[in-house]
Amino acid sequence: MSELQTALDELRDDVMLEAEAGGVFQQEAFFQLYAEAASDSGDAIDLEHTHCHRDGGSKPYRVDGYAFDQDRGILYLAVCDFRNGTELETLNAAQIDTSIRRVINFFENSLRSEFVNALEDSSSAFTVAYPIFSNRASIKRLRIVLFSNARLVARRAPQLAEEAAGIPVVFSVIDLARYTEIQGASSTPVAIEIDVATIAGGPIPCLRASSSSEEHESYLLAVPGNVLAGIYGLYGARLLEQNVRTYLQAKTKVNRGILTTIKDSPQMFFAFNNGLTATASAVRLVKLEDGQPAIAAISNLQIVNGGQTTASILYAKDVSGSPLERVHVPLKLSVVPETAIEQIVPKISRFANTQNRISEADFFSSHPFHLQMERFSRRIAAPPQAGALSGTKWFYERARGQYRDGMAYKSQSEKRKYQLEFPKEKVIEKTDLAKYVVTFDCRPDIVSKHAQKCFMYFADQTSKQWKTSQSSLNENWYRNACSMALLFNWTDKMVARSDWYASDRAYKSQTVTYTLAWLTNHIIADGKTGLDFNQIWKLQDVPSELQKIIEILAQQIARAIRETPENLMNVGEYCKTQACWEQISKRSFDLPEVPDHLTINPDDSKSEEKSARSTARLDSEIDLDIFLLSLVSKADLVRRTADRRGLLSPKSSNALEKLHRGITSLTRPERNAIRLLVKRLAEEGAPVEMIG
């Protein structure tokens, strides 16, 4: 069996599990899996599922998802090519052209008032068509992405299609092979091969800034503005390193100063702008007639600093039609071996952005908080459910693909054992954790802005909490988060399977987050701390009384969020506003009172939290004691390594001397000095675990 056939079998299993867990059709489950991959890879921002199609007529259409980056004027439309067969099929150029044409037909239809007015307000087609029509003057570029579980006959790079209504159209394809690459990519970028010479009309001269003996190569270039715009116009956010991409999705304001320079003083752009910092895995060098080296092609280009500049240059071209011939952008390009990408690129990104507005929250994906949650999830078993001999564990996926990797190369019996210990329905991804926690923090408007913006909000809040009160993010917090996940997912499935939702299958995610946020807010307004998540944790289920309340409330919330102001007819956009939450949170709904035994009062909450923090601090000290014992055998080597790197302080030196002599009883200042030294060594790329 080929690797792709195996990948297809795994995808079919994932689609069925996703459909069952979410109570949705397989087509929608397929879309959700691919939309997440598209967001990870930079092919699209968070897409909202809005399946609509028309097969007959002169202009048949189909769209399965959309998103609009209003600040940059980029409209994203997705279309699915989902095949139910068990055998791997092929996707040819004619099928791609048909799918792209149907999306363009819908886009062009949506620019006409008679088409939009003829749609029912509650239909999926209206959900997409109305924002296209109302923002038609702001749309400057259309990006179409085709999702397929077939195999492309020939791999295609993103390319320009015909213009639609005078607007540039770029389309890309995520077939099964590319989806599999994205899923297995972890922090390594999926291959991008850029033919610089073709886009620029010739190789770009460069200056080598490193010696031949160094581990990686460095080059300095002055990239013409129209070339940079052309490259970014084709590849979009795929060119941006993950932290920068997440940052730009969450904070999308275009830099007005850059636009002003391009318009008024294009010849001064090189002098005024800090330029770009980028990495690549390889470059193809050629020599110009005068002997000067030039870059003709770049492999795996990733912009780690300067994403705002890059996006703003394309915006200037699309929106104002500013000529870019006199604009040149400084570029510092580091060619990093593929074996070192995971270690070096994140460090380049972090250090390159220290003078930028990107905050530590934007680097939250590598925050130690995730390591702690992962550690809890591998150790803490949930209470056994009725009839079970042992409890299962929730699985916190700190990095993409960890759950699947955990089953790799295992026998069938080992896989079954693994899945019994960590059931698929109890996997929690980082962005999902953010969705759960922010919902019960009563910010459904943030959750409705979709995964990336919700994650950035969560990252900002959690980073602050980690700095001021790390011990509060303890085992009790973790168990509560798992209970939030259980309750959220139960509510999502309940809504999906309800009769009232079947008649209008729209705004499920908004209904779920607003329902649970309103319920939490209602309980807090009644003088309680919130729901008693400990009960949910013990049951590993939603108490029947709470189920009935949520079932009654969700239907009323679904109606309430559809009561939009006259100037904002799109329900999805309305739910993203704080005004929507303020309006919903003040409303009263007809439902039973929440029983006291399902809630927790402030005194009990404080006592429980105090105990949990005390336990967390004790666990931390025990962990350090164990770690110090492990350091005894290599304390002198660690001391010499730290000294060479200029990281050794008098206290850490004394502490390591003691450990070298077998003395593990250290003073508190010495223990703290060891903590700080270990942290600094890790930041310098020399974690203690790798020394020796």
From TrEMBL:
<dbReference type="Pfam" id="PF22879">
    <property type="entry name" value="AIPR_N"/>
</dbReference>
<feature type="compositionally biased region" description="Basic and acidic residues">
    <location>
        <begin position="603"/>
        <end position="614"/>
    </location>
</feature>
<feature type="region of interest" description="Disordered">
    <location>
        <begin position="595"/>
        <end position="614"/>
    </location>
</feature>
<feature type="domain" description="Abortive infection phage resistance protein N-terminal">
    <location>
        <begin position="30"/>
        <end position="178"/>
    </location>
</feature>
<protein>
    <submittedName>
        <fullName>AIPR family protein</fullName>
    </submittedName>
</protein>
<dbReference type="InterPro" id="IPR055101">
    <property type="entry name" value="AIPR_N"/>
</dbReference>
<feature type="domain" description="Abortive phage infection protein C-terminal">
    <location>
        <begin position="240"/>
        <end position="564"/>
    </location>
</feature>
<dbReference type="InterPro" id="IPR018891">
    <property type="entry name" value="AIPR_C"/>
</dbReference>
<dbReference type="Pfam" id="PF10592">
    <property type="entry name" value="AIPR"/>
</dbReference>
